[in-house]
Amino acid sequence: MATIDTILSETRVFAPSEAFRKQATVSGMDAYKALCAKAESDYEGFWGALAKEHISWHKPFSNVLDETKAPFYRWFYDGEMNVSYNCLDRHLADKSNKTALIFEADDGKVTKVTYQDLYHRVCQFANALKAQGVAKGDRVIIYMPMSIEAVVAMQACARIGGIHSVVFGGFSAKSLHERIIDAGAKLVITADEGMRGGKAVALKSAVDDAIGMGGCDCVEKVVVYKRTGGNVHWDAQRDQWWHEAIIGQADTCEPVWVNAEDPLFILYTSGSTGKPKGVQHSSAGFLLGAILSMKWVFDHKADDVYWCTADVGWITGHTYVAYGPLAMGGTEVIFEGVPTYPDAGRFWKLIQDHKVTTFYTAPTAIRSLIKLGSDLPKQYDLSSLRLLGTVGEPINPEAWMWYYETVGQGHCPIVDTWWQTETGSNMIAPLPGAVPTKPGSCTLPLPGIIADIVDEQGGPIEKGQGGILVIKRPFPSQLRTLWGDPERYKNTYFPAELGGKMYLAGDSAHRDKDGYFWIMGRIDDVLNVSGHRLGTMEIESALVANPLVAEAAVVGKPHDIKGESVVAFVVLKGQRPTGDAAREVVAQLREWVGKEIGPIAKPDEIRFGDNLPKTRSGKIMRRLLRSIAKGEEITSDTSTLENPAILEQLKETVK
Ligand code: PRX
């Protein structure tokens, strides 16, 4: 892959500036190394002290880590606390008038919310949820646009010990249906519609469709936030407007004290099988990861204006929108719209208007904004920026350099943060006042994160060689299990081949002479399209569910902007189509996948064959399909193929 080649030959190094280093929370390499050494010499002491210092406990914990049922780890497990209390109540004494949220709507309307206001809104909505019958441990699905209300809904669940499961608004009714059932949700919170790029996105109707598919008897109520006032179908028994649900509810609400290990949320993500996994996170460990990374990686300061562009439907929007910045008592921007509306200067205008100091986004967004107007940032005053971050996929050195020079104007460190839905918070990322950065590398693990690269049996690899990325010791913010499927949790993340105790991230990586990590890509059948994680099997199952389709195989192909694009090889039940007929079927199948999973999963390319390349034992040779998708010459031996002639058909794209 061209990107990886450029990354591997990258030699530029950017040390923190003197000015940045001086003011940084972790200042200088020695300070970073001292923290790492502390963690290594007394692992539990290190984490225990941090948890005591950074979390307000209702009942202090006396035990740090319980490994007796490994890999089902427990952290701070006899302590009691509440995440919402830590994000709101504890700031009221000295920050009640501080702005917590600056919300900018798609149309540019700005709403600011202070800590005092947010506290009352969360309390009032928490009381409304209780009145709808939500109690500790109940699951609540949140299917909302980016909004103040989405954060209020998440915080309100946390306040009463409810377990939220946010479903990204770009997922289809079918995906929502699966998640409602898997989580056994009692309540769904949604909006009539969202607004993105001047267009309304129907949300309530998707909830109606999802519940209408049957099997959702667990859902007792649907609470609907009125965002646009668009027409919605109404079930008077089941549906309840948000603004009506809060009428008469008190604006204070005693938090429900939960055990450190009680689940805060479930977030579904794609894996190697067709069925999404419900990643379950704890309360205290998750919060600790969010706080420490805000402090160490984002060097968070009291007067920062922090802006993470991720949607709350993804883990980044959980840790760095709904929880981390609020736990720090910080001010953050929340944006409803898209980077290109009304034009490709929108992000830069937001940074200028709200004097954003810390900006965190995905390489895909950076690459698309370079393409749409590489000079645009110069038309805005970006002098408030002091730190930039990226997340979700490898960043190519060219995009990194543009981000550094054009957006950061050569004085903002870039934190390239490697982590996952499962890890809950940043794992490998530079501490910007300490660790020199290299374009394309996420650099070194956070203190206390014992990351390594091993071979397929968990053994050491030769220096400089690529291998499998693992984390060798449990850490507080890691997932606790997969909702309802502990066996899958064990087998997926702590496979016996690696000894059953190492966390298998699912990525391959290599380390350079300075010990820096360079992420190479997934080792499983997971694609990373525009920073969104998609399982190839999920898309294949969606395709074969179409009555026209007999068989399908999906692979990724490098893409300049999206990182990877989705290429599907399809065998129809009828004849292999060509010309207009093929174009027609392609359009139908793309639409179909959009409905089955969501628009983000629509294949970019679909090719047809009379069959797929298989070994004599019937196994689809995906390696060959990847080469075909990339347009590479096939030089490997294809003699084991049952049907070599198929390859020629599959080389043909539908134009
Ligand atoms: O392959 C890695 C890639 O994204 C995967 C995790 O995806 P998800 O759970 O959706 O979380 C994304 C946001 C945390 C990883 O296994 N990935 C994430 N961050 C980086 C990355 N690849 C390279 N560099 C990164 N900084």
From TrEMBL:
InterPro entries: Ac_CoA_lig, ACAS_N, AMP-bd_C, AMP-bd_C_sf, AMP-binding_CS, AMP-dep_synth/lig_dom, ANL_N_sf. It holds the Pfam family AMP-binding_C. The lineage of its organism: Bacteria, Pseudomonadati, Pseudomonadota, Betaproteobacteria, Nitrosomonadales. Residues 89-474 form the AMP-dependent synthetase/ligase domain. It comes from Sulfurirhabdus autotrophica. Residues 538-619 form the AMP-binding enzyme C-terminal domain. HAMAP family: Ac_CoA_synth. It comes from the Bacteria. Residues 32-87 form the Acetyl-coenzyme A synthetase N-terminal domain. This is Acetyl-coenzyme A synthetase.
